[in-house]
Amino acid sequence: MKFKFLLTIMSSVLFFVFCSSSKKSSVNKTAITYTNNIQPLFLAKCAPCHFPEKGGKKTPFNTYEAVADEIDEIVTRVQLQPGQRHFMPKDGDRLSEKEIQMIKDWQTGGLVK
Ligand code: HEC
Prior knowledge:
By secondary structure, the protein is mainly α. The chain is 58% helix and 0% strand. It starts with a helix and ends in a 5-residue tail after the last helix.
């Protein structure tokens, strides 16, 4: 009896988690592309340092290929806290949770151009 009760609870929790997570991914992932979302964000937050045409001398993030190549390191660094070693954007404000989530969704969504 008790076991059945537990089973019911567990399956409703699983059902809920599954529904909310699949809903979230269908809203975000399909929509995020380099051209529409990532490029404008990087231009706003990672220039001039990572844009050679703006005088930046750091690893360039001015093309799709350059950003896609470095995506793991990028995702790691933007999730650090200001003041921590390797935090990016250097000397800037931390990206918003929404912006960080967008980069992660772009990564897990297959780096759509
Ligand atoms: C004010 C200048 C500045 C800005 C703005 C800036 N960076 Fe950087 N970035 C640097 C410097 C300097 C380094 C090299 C030192 C280091 O590795 O911490 C670096 C290094 C990096 C690296 C490591 C590159 C490699 O070759 O391993 C990544 C990844 C990175 N930045 C991501 C970003 C992202 C993403 C943004 C925008 C959200 C950003 N940075 C904004 C100055 C900047």
